User: Which sequence fits this backbone?
């Protein structure tokens, strides 16, 4: 009997658990897995464990930032960037999706700027902090760890049974280190495997925000029965939050909506497959529809005993499909309740979408126009942001809702661009510009610049190079009194191995406005959020400073 089979047998035999698998033996197994997975050797050359991904451990509170140039007078608010930050010596193979979450905050007020950062204090963080060690299985143990990684998961479940680890549900086990959502006065840290983590907010009388990282998982009065999403869509007309998510436990895809007051008003399963979809990171909305991509990366634990040695695998025979769900009435016609699926007949995977909108063709038929970077292959170890990550190409589709066909599909850019940003006031509407992270640098680590791309004219109109720095997401921030679509700024956190800067570009010209030199370096991370100063003060009662 191999180790995986033995671990599973012991898990389902409570008497043996009580007599044999006591704490010393489980701790011996920890050392065994550490050795067999070659954790020390693996992480010694693992980009996720060093260099630009190297964590920072110092937590700052409103450290003043050096400003080069002059901040735009109409740029007042809070820039937040989420990302993983391994706190303790790793006991497993490191991956981009491992480590405690950390929020980096830059508040710009009246021509000055201040930097703060804090860990996201989820239950997993709290347990590690109490134990003063890294206590949980890593994604890196699974994505390439094979049967040994699976056995490590089984032993983690044994520890939960014996009270050696907290008995957290899968939906309360996230580090929530991916993205952020500000809605109805609440700030959530997001990760697509768990509930959203509702962060405690503390505003001084001057409007300064202090984040302690404390908070709690939000299950919406126990009505949310599946993970939240890392990328929700906020309808600019209604302020509804719209998202799709997936569960590898139930093997289902879900659709959900929050109303403008943050209450869960819709939650339903729309599709079930086995093997199920591996990641559902982003989606589309238009004025009347929500669109879910069902993609070629699948999840099946049985694959850990096979050549990929990972539960995630790219299946070339599973084609990229789009599920269209009507969410609003069109005129007096009733809402179509069933999901309409469109098959691209090509394998593909999407991390991030650009936008989508509705159009009538020359025959008066309603079509949805979709834009997104697409990967036509992807390794099973999920090497996101590493040189071995394949290149995505920016593609466009037209879905004819009346004929049920894809009437047009073209590649717009065959260079590697990802992590797009738009003016969110145009979300779900026909518009012109997207700002794309340029990932063509041969070092293959995040972005070397930003490209302003005209979706209708299908051309790059402006470019900006990050020079010796790398960036992660060119975030569009609209001016308060904007008239044109590109009246605003591109705000981007630039990183090197020695320092970090926040750069502000004019979104129209992509010319540099100013740079902010942060008091400490920030590791590579994930997604960012801008909260205008006027949006936060009316919704939160300020505390005395």
Assistant:
């Amino acid at each position: 009997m191999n180790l995986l089979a033995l671990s599973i047998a012991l898990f389902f035999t409570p008497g043996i658990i009580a007599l044999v698998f006591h704490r010393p033996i489980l701790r011996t197994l920890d050392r065994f897995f550490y050795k067999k997975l070659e954790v020390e050797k693996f992480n010694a050359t693992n980009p996720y464990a060093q260099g630009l991904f190297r964590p920072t451990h110092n937590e700052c509170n409103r450290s003043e930032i050096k400003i080069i140039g002059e901040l735009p007078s109409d740029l007042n608010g809070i820039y937040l960037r989420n990302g993983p930050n391994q706190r303790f010596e790793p006991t497993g193979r490191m991956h981009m999706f491992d480590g405690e979450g950390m929020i980096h905050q830059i508040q710009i007020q009246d021509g000055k700027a201040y930097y703060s950062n804090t860990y996201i204090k989820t239950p997993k963080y709290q347990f590690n902090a109490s134990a003063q060690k890294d206590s949980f299985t890593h994604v890196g143990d699974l994505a390439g760890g094979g049967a040994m990684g699976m056995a490590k998961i089984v032993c983690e479940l044994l520890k939960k049974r014996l009270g050696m680890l907290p008995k957290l549900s899968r939906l309360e086990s996230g580090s929530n280190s991916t993205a952020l959502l500000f809605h109805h006065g609440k700030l959530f840290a997001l990760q697509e495997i768990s509930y959203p983590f509702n962060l405690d907010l503390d505003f001084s009388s001057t409007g300064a925000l202090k984040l302690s990282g404390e908070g709690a998982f939000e299950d919406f009065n126990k009505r949310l029965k599946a993970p939240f999403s890392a990328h929700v869509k906020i309808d600019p007309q209604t302020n509804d939050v719209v998202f799709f998510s997936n569960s590898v436990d139930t093997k289902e895809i879900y659709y959900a909506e929050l109303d403008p007051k943050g209450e869960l008003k819709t939650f339903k399963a729309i599709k079930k497959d086995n093997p199920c979809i591996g990641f559902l990171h982003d989606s589309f909305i238009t004025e009347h529809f929500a669109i879910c991509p069902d993609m070629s990366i699948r999840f099946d634990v049985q694959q850990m005993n096979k050549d990929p040695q990972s539960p995630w695998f790219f299946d070339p025979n599973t084609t990229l499909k789009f599920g269209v769900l009507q969410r609003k009435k069109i005129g007096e016609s009733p809402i179509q309740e069933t999901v309409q699926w469109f098959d691209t007949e090509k394998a593909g995977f999407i991390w991030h979408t650009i936008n989508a909108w509705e159009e009538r063709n020359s025959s008066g038929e309603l079509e949805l126009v979709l834009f997104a970077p697409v990967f036509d292959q992807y390794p099973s170890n999920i090497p996101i942001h590493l040189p071995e990550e394949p290149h995505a190409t920016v593609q466009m589709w037209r879905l004819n809702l009346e004929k049920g066909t894809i009437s047009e599909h073209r590649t717009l850019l065959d260079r590697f661009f990802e992590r797009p940003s738009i003016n969110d006031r145009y979300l779900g509407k026909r518009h012109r510009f997207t700002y794309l992270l340029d990932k063509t640098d041969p070092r293959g680590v995040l972005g070397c610049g930003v490209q302003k791309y005209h979706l209708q004219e299908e051309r790059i109109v402006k470019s900006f190079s990050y020079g010796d720095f790398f960036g992660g997401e060119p975030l569009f921030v609209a001016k308060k009194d904007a008239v044109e679509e590109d009246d605003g700024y591109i705000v981007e956190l630039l990183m090197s191995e020695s320092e970090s800067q926040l750069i502000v570009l004019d979104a129209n010209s992509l010319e540099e406005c100013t740079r902010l030199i942060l008091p400490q370096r920030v590791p590579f991370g994930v997604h960012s959020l801008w909260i205008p100063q006027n949006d936060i003060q009316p919704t939160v009662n300020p505390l005395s400073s």
Observations:
- The first helix runs from residue 3 to 11.
- Residues 538-545 have pLDDT under 50 and may be disordered.
